[in-house]
Design a protein that fits this description.
About 30% of the residues lie in helices and about 30% in strands. It is of the alpha/beta class. Strand 7, helix 6 and strand 8 form a beta-alpha-beta unit. Bound molecules: adenosine-5'-triphosphate and magnesium ion. Adenosine-5'-triphosphate (ATP) binds next to helix 1.
């Protein structure tokens, strides 16, 4: 199977002049469809910067990212926005839900934004919420949902456009252990069932058992890349 996401030679620094500090230092990686890949590393090691660069949210100083064959950072701003809408889904630590909207409306929103008619959007949103087990919570607002339920609404919203790639930055860190495990297990189910490429940045080593691969980054470089065998759960060096 060929990689769905290819990052090649990513270099990035923040700040200017003497305060300019390198965050990504020539980082390359490939991510496969149908797999959950975890990106782990110490605070400040560049995980979120990497995810933003491969997710088309932050233009790196150098390097290229290809998703399904398209070179993201060669697109115009408008084409990149359209590409992200068509191919990418995003999940964040803080859920990023609108306080005034019901679960159904949160999930329908990206479809409405994409010009899909109201009734179709609602029907697809309902189906997406059912996929994450929230069919009985359609009309609740964020304040009426638990943390785990809020993150599942965010996942349903990311999934409703059927993205090829799902980017998640610390999706479980605001959740207790049980809800965190449920969320990562759900992401793994999605990867397997839909062939989605799932890239998760996390501190949480408990998520490893729900991933196919673990990349460690340090100082803006990949220092290890391990594949987790599904049959034995033994960790092998990726080829
Ligand atoms: N917008 C920004 N402006 C300036 N510096 C930044 C910016 N974003 C990140 N940095 C710096 O880049 C480095 C890497 O940050 P990044 O957010 O990628 O780390 P991280 O691995 O995600 O850390 P954490 O685990 O704490 O989320 C840090 O030293 C951070 O201070
Ligand atoms: Mg981070």
């Amino acid at each position: 199977m060929s990689a769905a996401v290819i990052a090649n030679g990513l270099v990035h620094a923040f700040g200017s002049g003497a305060a300019r500090s390198p965050v990504l230092q020539g980082l390359s990686a490939e991510f496969m469809p149908g797999e959950v890949s975890l990106v782990m590393g110490a605070s400040g090691s560049g995980k979120s910067t990497l995810l933003a660069a491969i997710g088309g949210l932050l233009r790196p100083d150098r390097g290229e990212v290809r998703i399904a064959g398209t070179a993201l950072w060669s697109l115009t701003a408008r084409s990149l926005e359209r590409f992200r809408y068509q191919h990418c889904g995003y999940i964040f630590q803080g859920f990023n839900l609108f306080p005034a909207l019901t679960a159904l409306d949160q999930v329908a929103l990206p479809l409405r934004f994409g010009g899909i008619a109201k009734n179709t959007a609602k029907a697809r949103a309902e189906a997406s919420l059912a996929e994450v087990g929230l069919e009985a919570r359609l009309h609740l607002r964020p304040a009426e949902l638990s943390g785990g339920e809020k993150q599942r609404v965010a996942i349903a919203r990311a999934l409703v456009t059927r993205p090829q790639v799902l980017f998640a930055d610390e999706p479980t860190s605001a959740l207790d252990s049980l809800n965190g495990t449920a969320v990562i297990a759900l992401l793994q189910d999605i990867a397997r069932a839909l062939g989605t490429t799932v890239i998760v940045v996390t501190h949480d080593a408990r998520l490893i058992r729900h991933a196919e691969r673990v990349l460690q980054i340090d100082n803006g470089r990949i220092i290890s890349d391990e594949r987790i065998s599904r049959t034995s759960m033994a960790i092998e060096k990726a080829a």
